[in-house]
Structure formats: C-alpha cells, structure tokens
Amino acid sequence: MEKVIEVKGISRSYKLKTGLKNALDDVSFDVYKGEVFGLLGPNGAGKTTTIKILTTLLLPTAGNAKVLGYDVVSESHMIRNRINFVYGGERGVYGRLTAKEYMHYFCTLYKIKNKEQAGLIKDLLSLVKLEDAEDQKIHTYSKGMVQRLHIARCLINDPELLFLDEPTIGLDPIGAKLLRDIVRDLSSKGITIILTTHYMQEADELCDRIAFIKGGKLSLIGDPDFIKQSCNHLNLYEATMSIYDIEKLKEDHYFNKLEIEVIKEPYYSLFFEANENDLEKVSAYLRQYGDILKISKRDISLEDAYIYHMKDVG
Ligand SMILES: Nc1ncnc2c1ncn2[C@@H]1O[C@H](COP(=O)(O)OP(=O)(O)OP(=O)(O)O)[C@@H](O)[C@H]1O
C-alpha cells in the first residue's frame, strides 16, 4: 500500500515561562493512500499541532515527516499545492460575496484559468450540495452551508490529501450528516482524508483507521474494530427493571460507571460495568433490587474505548 504520510518521531515543544511544554512527543504513524484516518484525543492532546506540521504550517522541533513523499521541512513547497485543509468553525469567509464570487476569488488565487473557473465552481458547489445557493450572499448561509463552502474551496486545487479538523463542530445533526456524506464521497473518489473529531460515532462511521492521541503521545492505532476489541475485557450491561430502593443501588460498588434513566417509577434503565462476565450471575445479583424486564451485555462502542483509554487524562 502506498504511504501518503510517514511520520517518524515528531515532537513539538513550546517555551513557556513555566518551562518547556511538549505539545507533541515522539509521535510516529503512517497513513495509506485512500484512507480516512482519524486523529482522536481530548482538547490539547496535540491533534491540531500534528495537522499543522503535516500541512507545513508549523515546524517540528524533533523527528521528521514526509507527506506525499516530500519532507515537510525541506520540501514544503512540493507539498502545498497537492494538499488542502479545513478547520472546523473556520470564519474567514467574505459574507458580502455570493458563494460563486467567493469561489471565483479562490480559483484566481489558485491560478485556475479563467475559462475553466465557471465549470469547476459549478461542479464543486454541486458536490457540496450548494448549487441552489450559489448566488446567495454567504452571510445568509447556515453554519453547515458555510462549512460545505469551505470544503468546496479546499477542493479547488484538486488535492490528493485533505485535512479536516473538526469539520462538523457546531453543526446540527442534519448538517453534520450532510457533511459526513460529503467526506465519504470524497474518500470514494480516492482522496486521502485526515480527520479530527470529538464525535466518536462519527469517527466510527467514517474512519478506516484511528489513532488515539493523549498528552502529545500516540497511545493506540488501528481500525475501529481493533480499537473496540482493546476493551473486550470490559463487561458492559444494560438492563430495564423495577427498582424499589434506587439510593441503595446507587451506593452499591458492584456497579461501575452506573448510569440510571428513569422510565416511569419504579421502572428504570441501567447502564453499568461489572467485574462479572456472566450474565446469569449479574442478573441474580440485580434481582435483589427488583424485577428484571430485560438485561443484556452491551457491545463496546468506540466511545467506551475512548473513555477507557483516556481515563487518566484530566
Ligand atoms: N503557540 C503555542 N504556544 C504554547 N503552547 C501551545 C501553542 N499551540 C499549542 N500549544 C499547546 O500544545 C498542546 C496541544 O495543542 P493542540 O492545539 O495541538 O491540541 P488539540 O488536540 O488540537 O486540541 P483541541 O481538541 O482543543 O483542538 C496544548 O496543550 C496547547 O495548549
């Protein structure tokens, strides 16, 4: 498989008054052509720093990285024309322009020939489902439309590699779904995509492989199933039952990470982790609190795995 990104031991530190801050610490990974690769981690983990280094906007303080075969430090000029990026919640749009005018402006910046601009703009605005709003001024756009316009803009230079940093942040569920559909569409066209997101369901849906990053270090890398399987030892249950002493149950240390949802008293849904792997034994224990209507072991989600692996992050 062709590697489009090769990261070898990159670090990035900042000098602060309080000492040296390691934003990235000896991170290594590869990304293959055509992948949707997710970088997941809490705020301040080092995701944006990684993306800035790979998009040649920031220099690493140690290690090296190649993008499309070129070194991000010494050959950055060879990389820039062949990649593009969108930061979530990006402002930087010119509200008084229409989408078409905005795209023409960027086409000119990207030195697209005048006679090719109209056709390209039409195709790109239609790809991001903005064809009906192309003559509308951008300040009338919803957040989701603005975000899709950013995507259209970053496709002008026909990039082989796209960096999307929290592309669905602040979007409503329909706007976010539209954007995910576009990401899938771009991926099916062979564009390699590096994605950061705080939405685990989104990462699970879109990413071929995922890297967990915390405290500037890469902690786990693999496809979503592999990441979930890393938590196979967790015994997660969900139950629907009547409970007559909910306070007693809340204090029972048999249940870890207990979440309780009231359906209609005395009926509740319970979500919890137990040290016990045997459903029968867990059911027997639970019966002291009431009658069980339904109980099952729950599959491990990417969010479960994320919470487990990030648990010691403050
Ligand atoms: N210019 C800077 N000077 C000092 N520290 C910085 C600078 N830029 C980033 N950092 C620090 O580097 C660490 C990594 O930041 P980064 O923006 O890469 O995190 P992130 O994973 O993208 O977080 P978020 O999810 O909040 O976007 C943070 O602790 C941040 O405060």
UniProtKB/TrEMBL annotation:
Designated name of the protein: ABC transporter ATP-binding protein
Organism field: Mesobacillus jeotgali
InterPro entries: AAA+_ATPase, ABC_transporter-like_ATP-bd, ABC_transporter_ATP-binding, P-loop_NTPase
Pfam families membership: ABC_tran
PANTHER family linked to this entry: ABC TRANSPORTER ATP-BINDING PROTEIN (PTHR42711), ABC TRANSPORTER ATP-BINDING PROTEIN NATA (PTHR42711:SF5)
Family listed: Belongs to the ABC transporter superfamily.
UniProt entry keywords in alphabetical sequence: ATP-binding, Nucleotide-binding, Transport
Domain ABC transporter per the UniProt entry, residue ranges: 5-240
